[in-house]
Design a protein that fits this description.
mainly alpha
């Protein structure tokens, strides 16, 4: 009996370690940020008369989670040298320095299986939604996963390309979300233009805060090349550029859901820019990025509810 209790406790402990390992690899809080363009595109397409069975909606989110596990794990795999040095400031997920590729918890066979199953799961499940969604979701994952992180390309370590890669993936994810409910049509241009520069603005503080660790690891990111302060200062003209783009989006004929988001996004970008400058204490931004997640989760809930309402109306 004692032996059985001991084995049960050991089994429960092993399960907790396994679940924690994959929780870290998935980075669910960061996933919430990257997932929002999909939710926005879906809701706007549904409001415009799109059709989608609710079970396919669930499959779309499962495929995104599988794909995000792939790109997050690949990013961890490629960033071991930098993550080993990380002090975990600014990050909204578990400590970078505790990630499984740093601690040695990921064996070669498990790593190969992780990449294979998550990639196949992403595309395979996405195809059950529809082919246009699978194409744009897969392309977005390739851009922000393989092009951004893989050593063959490593756009993360190429000045300017790191921001462009992130911004481009956000646009691809918005198109994927739209294609869920309207596979034969396209989202309007102006939300994509706004989303591109909005995503680039929000990305800059993260790479700015990683400068000491990326420099020590030998990575030439935008932050290393231009300096953290200059990246933060670049957010100001981007916010200025976002204002006329926001005005155009509010004036043109398009889904009111796009307009609702953009009406909130521009003041949010300005407030975020101010906060990053206010909280910047060289060489770090002393900010818990997890604070961004809670309002974003509320927006996810709002836009998903509105999208489902239009689907079933």
């Amino acid at each position: 009996m004692v032996m059985g209790d001991s084995e049960a406790r050991e089994g429960a402990s092993s399960l907790r370690r396994f679940l924690r390992k994959y929780y870290i690899l998935l980075r669910p809080r960061t996933m919430v940020i990257f997932l929002f363009p999909v939710t926005l595109g879906f809701a706007a397409a549904a409001e415009g008369g799109g059709q989608l069975e609710l079970y396919r909606l669930a499959l779309a989110y499962i495929s995104f989670a599988s794909g995000f596990l792939f790109i997050s794990a690949l990013n961890f795999y490629a960033d071991v040298e930098s993550d080993r040095l990380h002090n975990d400031l600014y990050k909204g997920d578990p400590h970078m320095s505790d990630q499984p590729f740093v601690t040695g918890e990921m064996g070669r066979r498990e790593t190969v299986l992780l990449f294979l199953l998550s990639a196949v799961g992403c595309v395979g499940v996405a195809l059950l939604v529809n082919r246009p969604f699978a194409f744009f979701l897969g392309t977005g994952m390739f851009v922000i996963g393989v092009l951004y992180s893989h050593p063959w390309f490593r756009f993360k370590a190429k000045p300017v390309l790191d921001a462009l890669t992130n911004a481009s993936s956000a646009c691809l994810f918005l198109v994927a979300g739209w294609k869920m409910a309207q596979p034969e049509s396209w989202p309007p241009l102006w939300p994509l233009v706004f989303g591109f520069f909005f995503s680039a603005t929000l990305y800059l503080p993260s790479v700015a805060n990683d400068v000491p660790f990326d420099r020590a690891a030998g990575f030439r990111t935008s932050g290393v090349v231009f300096g953290a302060k200059r990246l933060l200062d670049a957010m100001i003209p981007l916010c200025v550029l976002l204002l006329p783009l926001a005005v155009v989006n509010l004036l043109v004929s398009q889904s009111w859901l796009f307009k609702l988001f953009i009406a909130m996004a521009w003041p949010g970008a300005v407030l975020f820019t101010w906060a990053m400058h206010h909280l910047y204490e060289p060489p770090f931004i002393r900010f818990n990025a997890a604070l961004m997640i809670y309002p974003l989760l509320a927006l996810h809930g709002l836009f998903i509810a509105l999208g489902v309402k239009y689907l079933v109306a």
